[in-house]
Protein 1
Amino acid sequence: MLSNRSIDTAAQRRSATSPLHSPLVAGHLRRYAAARPTPMRPLLEAAVVVISVALSACASSPTGSCKNGEQSAIHDTLYFGTGRPNSVVTDEEWATFLETVVTPRFPQGLTVSQASGQWRGSDGSIVRERTYVLELVHPDDTANEKSVTEIAASYKAQFHQEAVLRTRASTCVSF
């Protein structure tokens, strides 16, 4: 362990050549070297990191920070792979799913795009497949949350899918 004196001397020698080794940094090093680790210190440090991350996530949420004329909403994006064990989801099957499962839950509007994607399956293999990307913008409420989870669950069951990827973000919208 370094003594306070050796930290001061080393910092003074380097302070002329590097701003990172200033007397201010030496003071921080001295306090750090003087701090004795305790059994609770790692737990305390982990708690500080978790709280910092949580607070930064809250700070970046646009809720309450939308501009005049905008309103807060959720932007959900769901990725529906089309590969199945022995076939693929056809355009007709997708159109029927969209008409019977998605549209009744979000009649106010939605966007669908086609994409090519890949992901690692549960067996470790890389799966490459055509994908439908569904984007939904809706109020942040229980009914809409339930509708989104029902859509994903229905697709997985109906088309024997391992997963439907969902990304969810807070946003501000205006019309």
Protein 2
Amino acid sequence: MRGTVRWWTGRVSRRALGPLAIVAAISVGAAAAEPSPQVSCNIAGNDTSSFASLDAMPPAIVAELGRRMAVAGAGAPTPLMAPRDAAWQVTDVVVEPLPGRRFILGGRTGSRWYVWYESGGVAHLYHLAIFDLPDAAAAPTVIAHVITRLDELCVVTRALTQVAGSGDEGLIGKFW
């Protein structure tokens, strides 16, 4: 009995417990994500709305996100990002093919549209993408894409929806 731990009906050596615990934690952690963050944000203005689903946003915004998030030669495509509260790839350990991003919230103020999402991997990041999409435009213009803290998403969104445009001023991150 020395060096073993008795489990219900069988024995497991103490040396095997560590790797078993790690595999169990990884298997549960990747797919069993916590619910999406709840961030309240009051964007001032008469012409505003918010969306709890990426599918409710204009197809041109979704297409631009897809274009920027595409990975060349990545094999079988996974969805652009997981819906709110859905399972997603929280860690960098791939157990099953899940999206590496998850939608948090989207909204509009005038012709400015914003998308909040989180990405997993080695670091858990919160992203804000802001687009300008006037009624007559066929495609959106990216105003900003930044990574910020969860508790700053609203403040940064309020500020950046007022920016005239970014061009190459450093407000468009390379990592989507």
Protein 3
Amino acid sequence: MDERMRFVARLLDGEKMAELCREFEISRKTGYKIFTRYRDCGVDGLTDRSRRPYRHANRLPFQIEKLIVGLKREHSSWGAPKIREKLRRLYSDIQLPAISTVHAVLDRHGLVVNKGRDGCSPKENRIARPGESRRHTLSLPRVYASYGNFRNPAPHG
């Protein structure tokens, strides 16, 4: 901000824009932008602005998000497809979000239990660490032994 203030002060003293921009190693477009912000907003216009967008075009309205979270809290066993179907039946006049969007809302609010591909929680389906019980874990050497050598499979016969 100090450098921008010096830039504007020298412009106000009557120095030429092109020469100042060359000296400060900025484009003339940037120089005019800095000066316009100073003229419109004063010293506050010289501070860095947020790059965050003002609005999100595809953002789900908060009312629908609130409905989704409310239904999940009422019916904890329901997943995204059932919640979306319930919304369709209750509010036929609104544009429904996709099932993946409903799932993303539930996940964002911590209402999704992550399960592995076989329906177990991920902890139960892993190779045991030293000192852990191997009762609910995979044993890869045993799996390979039961199917034979994958590179040279035993002949069927």
